[in-house]
Amino acid sequence: MKILVIHGPNLNLLGSREKKFYGKTTLAAINTELASIAKKNQAVIKFFQSNIEGEIVSQIQDSRKKFDYIILNAGAYTHYSIALRDAISGVKAKVIEVHLSNIHAREKFRRESVIAPVCLGQIAGFGKDSYRLALEYILSL
Questions:
Q1: Distances (CA, A) of 23 to 17, 19, 81, 93
Q2: Which residue in 135, 115, 100, 125 sits closest to 27, CA to CA?
Q3: How far apart are CA 35 and CA 135, in angstroms?
């Protein structure tokens, strides 16, 4: 099983940014935990982070024949990026949308996800464990 984890804009600042919403854990720590879980389950996992929408779209498109699943935290792009939605629709890999904070309990503009309808599911509000829960679900299949 091959899994791609994509971290969107501002996630490179985890651990120092709005800890009330995003916690104290760094992006590197999240990746290390996920890599450990994947290795124990003999799954291949790759990580990518970008603050640039087009780079994320390209990464999704490039996954076409390389990955079975994508765990995607699209950050703010979740709420308005039709380009990401179209990229997700155009690949075979199943995508799980994740968010550290509960986007449904925050500002009104954060409550709508334009990518959710083309994703396998959405996990939000469990901090760094949102990523782990997505990975564990994939590994259980």
A1: 8, 4, 25, 29
A2: 100
A3: 10
Reported residue count of the chain is 141
Q: How far is CA 6 from CA 53, 84, 97, in A?
A: 11, 12, 10
51 is in an annotated binding site: no
Q: Mean pLDDT throughout 109-137?
A: 95
pLDDT digits (tens, 9 = 90+) for 71-89: 999 999 999 999 999 999 9
Whether the predicted model's global pTM rises above the 0.85 cut: yes
Tokens 């994740």 locate to: 98
104 appears as a binding residue in the annotation = no
Residue 2 DSSP SS3? strand
Give the residue numbers annotated as catalytic, written as ranges.
Answer: 22, 99
Is 101 annotated for ligand binding? yes
Q: How far apart are CA 89 and CA 33, in angstroms?
A: 29
Write out pLDDT tens, residues 17-54.
766 676 789 999 999 999 999 999 999 999 999 999 99
| Domain at 2-140, CATH class | alpha beta
pLDDT range class, residue 99, cuts 50, 70, 90: very high
